């Protein structure tokens, strides 16, 4: 198949997922065309079946807001017609579903029907999409999609609750390449981070309010009060300055490292003992799944789709949003008890294998086949 993938190229779950999906489809022989405004973060290296089309957004003094959506739709049209795409798969509803609809209408004038699939990722539904500024367009373009997928049952339910959706939504979970994230022994790296054998706690996110990173720091404070420990904060985003202030206020600067955005996440995960994701909402929690594949138990909130991934008492523990004391008590219990840690590590790895890339990619391929069959009669 010739597949066009549209996503946010930045450091974030939906873009990472879309890029890994494209790479996996290319490995299976499909021709994959990424259409984005910059090279997606995990799209590195040459692959014979992968093509990248950059969306250029020309500016003009009249434009206070350069019309990105028009540029994106026009680029989609160009790629659909010239690369003879069979379908488009857009990730994150805003604005990708409405731009895909526009492109679909334009290529129809050229006598082509191009189906498009919209994958809902989370905040496009639960936060931004609900805003009345966007809701009519989001509702319309989701309903116009040839197929809709959500990354968890929770997100599917949230979508039906928040929007008058007229079609079914298939749940296709996030996935992980368990070989890539298999835990490695990296003694020198571990020694550099925790020179005195301290336990290593890890958080990875885009440091937005929804992630509740201050809770991570507060949990860590309670842990470090009772045992030697280090915290690695991976990623970056708007809340970072206030989190740095909190670290200083709590006297934790020597034990917390902000390591920025990391491409070799699997190495960081390999040296970690516990992953913390206390989000206000999380449709799935891809980073938590990647941690589990690296045998790192997860402490998470029980918000959104997280309980579908992090099984309480099996792969880690989940707590009510904001219950820092309970999260800290769980963290201390795990880190003090090697048997419990080993048992949760085993549970985490087993759970990750259920979301193995080889189990999930065929679900997308089957959906593409269905959509193409249905398009034949349009
Ligand atoms: O987590 C973020 O804020 C980034 C966001 C995105 O769209 O890039 O991630 C969302 O999509 C991921 C991939 O499907 C999910 O694993 C994340 O749980 C989801 N984030 C939220 O729902 C907050």
Q: What's the SSE blueprint?
A:
Blueprint: E1 2-6, H1 13-27, E2 31-36, E3 50-54, H2 68-82, E4 87-91, H3 93-108, E5 116-120, H4 123-126, H5 135-144, E6 147-150, H6 153-162, E7 170-171, H7 187-193, E8 199-205, H8 213-226, E9 229-235, H9 240-249, E10 256-260, H10 265-270, E11 274-277, H11 286-293, E12 298-301, H12 306-309, E13 316-319, H13 324-336, H14 338-354, H15 357-376
Parallel strand pairs: 1-2, 1-4, 2-3, 4-5, 5-6, 6-7, 8-9, 8-11, 9-10, 11-12, 12-13
Helix pairs in contact: 2-3, 3-5, 8-13, 11-14, 13-14
The protein binds ligand GMT.
Q: How would you describe the overall organization of this protein?
A:
The longest helix is centred in the last third of the chain and has 20 residues, at 357-376. With 378 residues, this protein is an alpha/beta fold. Helix 11 packs across helix 14 (338-354). Helix 8 links the parallel strand 8 and strand 9 (229-235). It is elongated. The protein has two domains: 2-175 and 357-375, Glycogen Phosphorylase B (Rossmann fold, 3-Layer(aba) Sandwich), CATH 3.40.50; 187-354, 3-Layer(aba) Sandwich (Rossmann fold), CATH 3.40.50.2000. The protein has helices spanning 13-27, 68-82, 93-108, 123-126, 135-144, 153-162, 187-193, 213-226, 240-249, 265-270, 286-293, 306-309, 324-336, 338-354, 357-376, and strands at 2-6, 31-36, 50-54, 87-91, 116-120, 147-150, 170-171, 199-205, 229-235, 256-260, 274-277, 298-301, 316-319. The structure holds ligand GMT. This is N-acetyl-alpha-D-glucosaminyl L-malate synthase BshA. Residues 189-348 form the Glycosyl transferase family domain. GO terms for molecular function: glycosyltransferase activity. It comes from Chitinophaga barathri.
